[in-house]
Known about the structure:
Elements: H1 4-7, H2 15-40, E1 94-96, E2 105-107, E3 122-125, E4 133-136
Antiparallel strand pairs: 1-2, 3-4
Amino acid sequence: MTSSRTRHGVWGPFWQPVMTVRVPLLRLGLGLVLTWGAGCSEQPVPSTESQTEAPTPAPIVQPDHQFVPAKQRTKALGERCAAGGESECLSRLCLRAGPRLDTDYFCSQQCSSENDCPKTWGCIQIHPSAGGQVCVPPEGWTGAVAEPR
């Protein structure tokens, strides 16, 4: 009869080395699962921050300015048209000429040169087509009837 040492080599049958490695790995895995499970079952630690503080509100996104149509056109060149837009302007052109969405709208008109615009106003191209030029007020315009040239 042959000994297991000669028949299977020094390490024994092919499954023995695997079993000797599997058992410690199985124990390690089981230990990790138990440790993780114990950590998950703990109650959350109460916050030291005051519970009465209100959360910071999200920033408000401003929608586009909405005009309310005017019943009749009464505004002259240079006057504010923030409420009714072009429906307020005798020229039928209300131009936004500043950063504020609620106030920087003024009645304007089409032009081909600065001579077509009021004093201190400029004539700029806002669209590449013919007739795409409009009169624009100077910086800081507050809204008033513009003085003609």
